[in-house]
Amino acid sequence: MSQRLENRQIVIGVSGGIAAYKAVEVLRLLKRAGAQVRVIMTENATQFVGPVTFEALSGNRVCTGLFKDTEKDASIRHIEWAQEADLVLVAPATANIIAKYALGLADDALSTLLLAAAAPVVICPAMNSQMYEHPAVQRNIGQLRQDGRIIVEPGAGELACGTVGPGRLADPAEIFDRICGALTEKDYAGVRVLVTAGPTREAVDPVRFLSNPSSGKMGYAIAQAAEHRGAHVTLVSGPVNLSPPVGVRTVPVICAQEMAHAVFAEFDSADLVIKTAAVADFRPKDPAAHKIKKGDPNEEQNLLLERTVDILKTLGDRKKEQFLVGFAAETRDLERYARDKLSAKNLDMIAANIVGRADAGFGADTNRISLFYRDGEKEELPLMEKSDAAHLILDRVLDRVLDRIPDRIPDRIPDSLKSGTSIGQ
Ligand code: PMT
After folding, report:
1. Can you give the pTM of this predicted structure?
2. What is the pLDDT of residues 383-425, one digit of tens each?
């Protein structure tokens, strides 16, 4: 469960499109994250998905019209919902509801709620490609952007009507992610964050490599969390099966050498570096130019390895104002090895985790991290989602980085963080 969405009040507005069923999945994701969800449907939307589905999954009555409800206060319910909402989502948003909202029309429950809402509004257009590209629709979307609404661009592909092009409702996971972003305080606005993630692959020959099980989840969670908090984020990523985080500049690399080049090129313009990547310490000294062939069944092969560049140590040697966070992946003696790395690599903080467990370290969605700081302080975090661990690490960094880059930190920092002691200098 994401702590960021827990008990947040979200209204989902569903307008009449074939993608209405995908709003069900968004609702599920929001509920799973602990949000309170209310659903308001246009009359047309009820032709695609029954209100009962949304009612069952949200645990709340669904509003389907201004005067349809027999309850006494039904006609003002949508106004109350608008006032109580932390965020309003419209998914799918048809050309019709987009036009009404852009013009300020209020002739049904959803369009009325939209005008009454003071909370952030996220609009997810979905329609036929030609409709989507029509100048009138684009003009209305542009107007909503100008009004400060968040637009989640539709994807491209084959649409229900058979045409191929843009107009397909964005993936529920992306919509969920944008909601998280919209509800996150921008306490990293202006801060330049460099994150590394994933494994590296060191070639043995053109078809084989040495690597490790890093999925990239921890590093991607940190990059996304920093982006949600307003940072300019560059993510240098080894090969993983994850979609690049929205709003993050992602630089794909394969091997340790490439990662080193990419990181060194970005380092001078970073305020904060978080090195989550599982970089190979060794690589084959002489990778074969062609696929190594099997010979005699009893034949043994020796693989001569050489050290890769220690990227983090090089950064520690070069660092000026940057705040440097390393990770330590260990199978034993976590604290001893983490503290050794903290001092040998001249880090400000290290996040250490035991790897080789099902619920933490490589590949898992959760992690159990211990944080060690330069002044000797230590903090053991409980098992939590990697996304929550990412935010916690960023909270702790902000605590300690405040007096280093005060000009980049906006006024909106919570008092709890302002009073944080400054260590790691
Ligand atoms: O990707 P996931 O599946 O989500 O898994 C997350 C994780 C287990 C990979 C992550 O939480 C983690 O522990 N990352 C660090 C992995 C690692 O390489 O640890 P290490 O103890 O070997 O290295 C210490 C630090 O030096 C790391 O910050 C590493 O990025 C850096 N390093 C290591 C070797 C090298 N040649 N260059 C480096 O910069």
Report:
1. 0.88
2. 999 999 999 999 999 988 765 555 555 443 434 333 333 323 2
Contact 326 CB / ligand 1 (< 6 Å): yes
**Residue 1 maps to a domain:** no
Structurally, how many domains does the chain consist of? 2
**Looking at the structure, do residues 279 and 400 belong to the same domain, yes or no?**
yes
Q: Which of 162, 182, 202 is the last residue of a domain?
A: 182
Question: In terms of domains, do 209 and 236 share one?
Answer: yes
Nearest of 182, 177, 12, 15 to residue 93 by alpha carbon: 15
pLDDT digits (tens, 9 = 90+) for 350-375: 999 999 889 999 999 999 999 999 99
Q: At what angle do helices 172-182 and 20-32 cross, to 10 degrees?
A: 50
161 is catalytic: yes
Of 349, 398, 397, nearest in space to 377 by CA: 349
Contact assessment for residue 151 and residue 145, using Cβ atoms and an 8 Å cutoff: yes
What average pLDDT is seen over the chain? 91
What is the CATH classification number for the domain harbouring 15? 3.40.50.1950
Same domain, 225 and 164: no
From the CA of 350, give the closest atom in ligand 1: 28
The reported pLDDT for the residue numbered 412 is 39
**Which of 312, 323, 386 for a ligand 1 pocket mutation test, highest count of atoms within 8 Å of Cβ?**
312
Question: Is 218 near ligand 1, meaning CB less than 6 Å away?
Answer: yes
Quote the Cα angle for 56-62-65, to 5°.
155
| Residue range(s) defining the domain that contains residue 362 | 192-418
CATH code of 282's domain: 3.40.50.10300
CB 154 within 8 A of CB 220: no
Atom of ligand 1 nearest to the CA of 198: 1
Task: Single out the residue of 277, 352, 260, 278 nearest to residue 315, CA to CA.
Answer: 260
DSSP string, 346-368: T-SEEEEEE-SBTTBSSS-SEE-
What residues pair up with 370 in beta bridges, in sequence order? Answer: 352, 380
